[in-house]
Amino acid sequence: MKMKKFIYLLPLLVVLFFQKENLKMTPSKEKQKTKVVDTIKNDTLKAAEKLEMYHKGAHASYYANKFNGRRTASGARFNNNDMTCAHRKLPFGTKLKVTGVKTKKVVYVTVTDRGPFVKTKHIDLSRKAFMAVAPKSYGGHIEVDLEIVKK
């Protein structure tokens, strides 16, 4: 009798296990709340921030959706809704101020990956960061100014 109950429960346990794994990959509401706090901190940081110009007129592109959930070079999981970027040489954890040359819009990102591996591109932004800096309904690549945020 106990074996029959176990046979019925086994598929349910397997489904619950895999749903738990999928939930880890999707951003939680708590994580989204911390992003709002981070943007508020970044706004208040403007007055006291020390910036070092790194590259004027850098060519920026964005990650494809197929990279969502994959590990980055730093070991963190990539999420296109985070404010992150990839750079060839800057150390992981470096905070960058990215300013669109045409739009003058500003976004703060953190280096979490290596790339881009195209010689004409200087930085790969997450999709959310790219769309925040790019002109409306624009895709592909844009020209940006990169500044390193010093503590």
From TrEMBL:
Keywords: Lipoprotein
Family, similarity comment: Belongs to the RlpA family.
Entry annotated with the keyword Mitochondrion: no
Pfam families with a match to the protein in the record: DPBB_1 (PF03330)
Protein name: Rare lipoprotein A
Keyword Repeat belongs to the record: no
Entries under CDD domains matching the protein: DPBB_RlpA-like (cd22268)
Domain RlpA-like protein double-psi beta-barrel: 58-144
UniProt organism field: Flavobacterium terrigena
